[in-house]
Amino acid sequence: MQEILRRQFGALPEREIASLPQKLANPFKYRFRTILFVAEGLRRQVQGFALLNHAPDLDFCYLDFISVRPGATAGGTGGALYGRVRDEGRLLETIGIFMECLPDDPRLCRDLALVKQNRARLRFYERYGTRPVINTAYETPLKPGEDCPPYLLFDDLGSAKPLGRETVQRIVYAILTRKYGKTCPPGYIDMVVDSFHDDPTRLRPPRYLKTEPVRVQPIKSLEKLIALVVNEGHDIHHVRERGYVEAPVRIPTILKGIAPTGLFDRMPARHFPERHIKAVHDRDFVEYLKKVCSRIEPGKSVYPYVFPIRNTARPPKDLLVRAGYYCIDTFTPLNRNAYLAARGAVDCALTAASQLLEGYRLAYALVRPPGHHAESRVFGGFCYFNSSAIAADFLSRLGRVAVLDIDYHHGNGTQEIFYKRADVFTLSIHGHPSFAYPLFLRLCRRAGRRCGAWLQSQLPQDGRVGRPWLQ
């Protein structure tokens, strides 16, 4: 973005270009919330960008820059960017978007080649009903004799609502002080603000187009969609025996429910290396699960029935008997497809997590078998690999992660995996383990006491609210 600014806006001071990262990171310093929109080509090359400043205190937006990369074929990039900017202005429920554009009047701009370019820009904006504000001193140069002072343009985003004089005066004062406060000579800002006399404020009549402004449809932007990744091969793991309640019908039922919302952008899962699984799960456990599942006869299931309560150091040599060494219950079977289905669920979770790095704000991995009961070296509760924990570990390389588990059952696996790690915070809201699976809470008694003491200190002290919750 900074390179485009340097090449397209040669007169722009380097200090302003260099301040772009700070504007994005610290809106309080610049008194604008800066939003950067980037248009990319098929090969991920930046084609253009728009830099929008939002002033929530006055409910307006100011379009600071919009530009296409030099040498790139526009191909509608500018229109797509401006359409996205307008969409954002509407979503933020602002009065409209203000911006500056160099004049198309030779009396204000002596460079005729530049005048020609300015006319093209103003023609572009006029298509959307965006036109210069007239009958003001906004075009007054900062220094006498300076050439090409900018017009102030306004886009009402199709609302057709009149712009009151006092409202626009407050907005113009904010624009000039926040953007040009250090460069304006004494008295300049007050002079410009006081020059707004029309109420409502008037815009220049259309000069280039005689038709109605185009109606722009909202842009289907990544950050407004939810990336959806479905474990397409989930139904290979369908167990019809011994009360196996985690059934394939769950997936199509959920898809049927969410389809009408139009919020989801479905995409195929990518295949990820096994090292992501082994970063969370014990290597021997992963290898065991892969090996034992490949050796079970198709259509058959094996259930753990011997558990090493006293001796966990010596796993049985027989692979099928060893199931109890790696399991926490007697009703989660091993079969030929258990590993493959769990592996597919992991790929879906990692694909969804990676989409957060591609521009999506939200991603949903719809998978089965589930994963939150699988600990670092055991499976159970119909869970084989902890796909959400693997996704959290994947994202933890980029920053701190929080896992909120809202399943009715305790997310014992996720808790155990991250219990001693400070980079991933886990919170499970679940039924009491005295009657809800997995029935035994691990490693949490001490933490529970600390949390209980803190919660009790935050709740009313009459005991009627705090105690039932803490119990």
Structural account:
- It is a single chain.
- This protein has 471 residues and is α/β, with parallel strands linked by helices.
- The protein folds into 2 domains: 193 residues, 3-Layer(aba) Sandwich (Aminopeptidase); 180 residues, Histone deacetylase domain (Arginase, Chain A).
- The protein is 33% helix and 14% strand.
- The chain contains 16 helices and 13 strands.
- The strands form 4 sheets. A 6-stranded mixed β-sheet has the order 1-2-3-4-6-5, with helices on both faces. The chain has a 3-stranded parallel β-sheet with strand order 8-7-11, with helices on one face. It has a two-stranded antiparallel ribbon with strand order 9-10.
- Strand 12, helix 14 and strand 13 form a beta-alpha-beta unit.
- The chain is elongated, with a radius of gyration of 31 Å.
- The two termini are 55 Å apart.
- The C terminus is likely disordered.
